[in-house]
Design brief:
With about 250 residues, the protein is mainly alpha-helical. The chain contains 10 helices and 5 strands; from the N terminus they run H-E-H-H-H-E-E-H-H-H-H-H-H-E-E. About 25% of the residues are buried. It comes from Fusarium oxysporum (Fusarium vascular wilt).
Length: about 250
């Protein structure tokens, strides 16, 4: 599926709940309550709530936006309106001593704000992300079926694309992590272990998969991939990886 978007000349992103008035207010230069309202309206669009549209956005080369009345913006060089969304938000942040005051004003929690959309802009530039970043980006979005989650995940990670062999989520999820390790993406090794009775990260079926920054500590984005070179070996039959690592120090 990801190849469909990456090879398309243009992908039209359909914002069926964004009106003409919202877009007009969003692109005004002057700070107004209406522009702030438009920023929040776009952030809360259903488009940003689905895992499939996240993959679609990241893998598409050239995108154009269509809004609720089927108006298309062919010459608007601002994928998913994110440029203006972040500009409008930054302009507002400057007016507050604490960003939490602004977040409280727009009822963050009930509403999305630009930063809570995740790393969509940087992900689009990268086209492919490490396993941890990809999982954290997708797992806060809507998904009707657990197996459905794996398809867009495969579409934005660095490992080669392959067909699922079974309908068992856990088996296929770990197969994806193994393929990531083999291409030098070691972020699957940072999956937070299940914590037993003290596990409080969220729904039980997410507990084994700890990359979501909503449930575990946030390591931030990868700056440079690790260069282990010859100091690694893989055993495909046992699904075992051996690494030679360096003990740095204890972090608190």
């Amino acid at each position: 599926m990801d190849k469909l978007f990456s090879t398309a000349e243009t992908t039209v992103l359909y914002f069926n709940d964004v009106s003409t008035n919202v877009v007009n207010e969003l692109y005004k230069d002057k700070r107004t309550p209406e522009r702030l309202s438009s920023v929040i309206s776009v952030c809360n669009s259903k488009y940003f709530k689905r895992i499939w549209t996240a993959m679609e956005f990241i893998r598409s080369e050239r995108v154009r936006m269509m809004i609720s009345n089927y108006t298309c913006f062919p010459d608007l060089d601002d994928p998913a309106f994110l440029g203006r969304v972040f500009k409008g938000w930054k302009d507002e942040v400057r007016q507050y001593e604490k960003v939490h005051d602004l977040e409280r004003k727009v009822q963050m929690g009930k509403s999305q704000v630009p930063w809570s959309l995740g790393t969509l802009k940087s992900a689009k530039l990268l086209k492919r992300m490490n396993f941890a970043m990809a999982t954290a980006l997708l797992c806060t979005r809507g998904c009707k079926d657990r197996m459905d989650f794996l398809h867009p995940l495969r579409g934005i990670i660095r490992a080669r694309s392959f067909k699922l062999r079974s309908s068992d989520f856990k088996t296929e999820y770990y197969r994806i992590t193994w393929e990531c390790l083999k291409v030098g993406d070691y972020s699957p090794l940072l999956i937070t272990p299940f914590m037993g009775v003290s596990e409080r990260r969220g729904p039980g079926h997410w507990s084994e998969f700890g990359h979501s920054d909503a449930f575990t500590w946030q390591l931030g984005q990868e700056v440079h991939p690790p260069t282990l070179g010859k100091y690694k070996s893989f055993d495909d039959s046992e699904h075992r990886i051996t690494l030679r690592v360096e003990d740095m120090k204890q972090f608190r």
